[in-house]
Every structure is written in C-alpha cells, then in structure tokens.
Specification:
The chain is an alpha/beta fold. It is about 35% helix and about 15% strand. The strands form three sheets. It has a six-stranded mixed sheet. Strands 11-10-9-12-13 form a five-stranded mixed sheet.
C-alpha cells in the first residue's frame, strides 16, 4: 500500500531547494590593507547553536525506543532502533559514521563523490560496507523510488534542502529533519544522534572537540593576540570568503582565533572579485578549490599579483585544504579535520 501511495506523489515532487553548503552573501565588507590591520576583537556570542533547541529532541535515554523526536519538520515517532538508515543531507554520512552507524542509502552533493575521500580515509573499518551503499541520487534531487526500495527504518535530511519533500519522505519511513548549514553542525549532530539513540556519545564528542579547540587557541595566543585566519573557497566561476557564522568560522571561534575585519559579516559567505582580493588576506589563509583547471576562478585569482602580493602569500602562510571537509560536509569528523589543519599550520 505504501508503494501505491508513493506512486501518486512522486510525480508531484520537484527538485529540492538548493542546499547552500557555503551560502550566498549579498553583504559587502570593506577591504583591509594588511593582515595586521585586520585584527578585530573576538566575537563573544557563539556564532551557532551549541545544543538541541528547546522543544526538540526526544528527552529519552540512549538506546531507549520507541522515542518521539521533535525536529525541524515536526515530530516523528521512531518505534525501534534504526537498522536501515538513509542519509540525504550534507554532513549526515559523516555524522552517522562518527557514531558507528553505517547507513544503507546515501545521497551525494554537486561535484562530489558518493563517498568523499576524507570519509574513506577516516573510516577504513567500514570500507567494505561503504561499497554497498545504495545511491539515492543528488542531494538536491533525490531518487524517491530508490529510497522507497530500501524500505528504511529512518530517513535523515535537512530542512534547508528537503522541507518540500518531507511529507513524501515521511510516507516511506520515519523522517527527521535537521536544520542544515554549517554553523548549525553541533545542534544538527546532536539531533541526528537523538534519532539514532546515541545522544550521549555525540555530546561527549562535542565536549572533547570544544576543549581541544580552546587548547589550540591558548597555545598560539601571544602578546599581540591570536593570529587572524581567513577561509577562501574557489569553484569553477566563483570566489568566496567565509564569515564567522560558517562551518570553518565556528571552528575558528571555538579556538578563539581572530578573523580579519573583512570577514566579520553576518552571512555564511561573500563573493569577492579579483579587484577585491585583499578581502581574502589574513595572517593565515586556508583555501580550497573545487575546480583548479586553467580556466577556473582559482587559476585566475591565485596568479593575480594582488593575490601573490598578499602578506599571507609572501610569508608562505597560504594553506591548501581539502574542499570536502572544510567547505562541503558540516559533520563532526570534518570538524576534526578542520581543527587538525588549523593546528598543523598555526602550531608549526
């Protein structure tokens, strides 16, 4: 009967709303002329949530089922511990594996593999099982029929990209929506863990991560404060800097690291032109390129004299990083990779 109901609704399902992993920012910032002049006072309020919002989650102890989980799509009863899980949203494969749960169905992001390299590297113990993942399509246009064929016990998705098809997903299996976007990674990890009955495990991970980040900040703080850090991402035709309320920005905030004045805006990210390259400058610049071809924005920008003349460039403080964990997958293991990258650069 469930399959018959799906047949009447699949035709009405349109492509998902774009999952804005990095986001698009309209706001502009004033250029800074050097990393030294870019230092600003640390933001005192956390740029993103640290826990599950009031009224959400289940309140149930780990491993206790059935449980009713309040989430960003409503309230969902999960009758038993899920055995066949589908993950659709950015970072949810990362989050599930971090908790020791190997999904059955997995979606992929634009320009990304079904299993990003950093996932394969981080979870070699699941290598054989990851080859058996069922591909349920692009995260922005999932294959409803493929999901239904799995007959999952739980579907995990983001409100950001899956709100429109949440009613359809809910006819297939209990579905829980996290909020989405990188700055919400801690909250979303805890909510996902609640649906899986593993909240305490997730909270322990976050507590340890936060402590490690603070230790990094303390280790590099000097008489003139902490170094400024800049986050830059190139795609085929775009160049962006990332603000404090972004995935990498939140991690830098946890570490107490300063941001250049040009990146103190209230959006996830902001595009910048070649004439505005100075917006990318800081004591340290962490840059990824989704496309580094000869005609790409990365090739054009990074050979521009304004780029090669930045203080970070002349001091050899530009660090190339993996696009997937730094800018595409807002999960807990990705967060650890970003923190480790900051440690490696700043601690020498």
């Amino acid at each position: 009967m469930k399959r018959l109901l799906l047949a009447t609704t699949i035709a009405a399902v349109t492509a998902l709303t774009t999952v804005a992993c990095g986001g698009t920012a309209e706001q502009t910032a004033s250029p800074s002329t050097s990393a030294e002049s870019a230092t600003v006072d640390a933001v005192t309020d956390a740029p993103g949530p640290t826990g599950i919002p009031d009224g959400m989650g289940s309140g149930a102890a780990d491993g206790v089922f059935p449980r009713t989980v309040g989430h960003f799509g409503g309230s969902t009863e999960i009758p038993a511990e899920p055995k066949k899980v589908v993950v659709i949203a950015t970072g949810q494969l990362d989050a599930a594996l971090t908790l020791g749960v190997v999904p059955t169905g997995v979606a992929y992001g634009d320009g990304a593999e079904l299993v990003p390299d950093y996932i394969s590297f981080s979870f070699p113990q699941y290598a054989d099982r990851m080859t058996q993942f069922v591909n349920v399509g692009n995260r922005q246009d999932v294959d409803i029929e493929a999901i239904a064929a799995i007959e999952p016990d739980l579907i995990l998705a983001n409100k950001t990209g899956s709100e429109d098809i949440y009613p359809t997903l809910s006819t297939i299996a209990p579905t829980v929506l996290t909020e989405g976007t990188g700055v919400n990674w801690k909250q979303d990890f805890l909510l996902l863990a609640d649906a899986l009955g593993r909240t305490e495990q997730a909270q322990t991970f976050i507590d340890t991560f936060t402590s490690d980040a603070a230790a990094l900040g303390n280790s590099v703080a000097g008489t003139s404060g902490t170094p400024t850090v800049s986050f830059v991402r190139f795609t085929a035709d775009r160049a962006r800097v990332f603000g404090v309320p972004s995935f990498a920005g939140y991690i830098a905030w946890d570490a107490g690291l300063a941001r250049p004045e040009s990146q103190q805006f209230d959006k996830t990210s902001q595009d910048f032109s070649e004439e505005e390259i100075q917006l990318a400058n800081a004591d340290w610049v962490f840059v990824s390129s989704q496309d580094a071809g000869a005609d790409s924005s990365a090739a054009s920008y990074t050979t521009n004299p304004l780029w090669t003349g930045m203080s970070a460039a002349t001091e050899n403080h530009i660090v190339r990083v993996d696009d997937d964990p730094w800018y595409l997958n807002a999960g807990p293991t990705a967060a650890t990779i970003v923190l480790d990258g900051l440690k490696s650069a700043l601690q020498g």
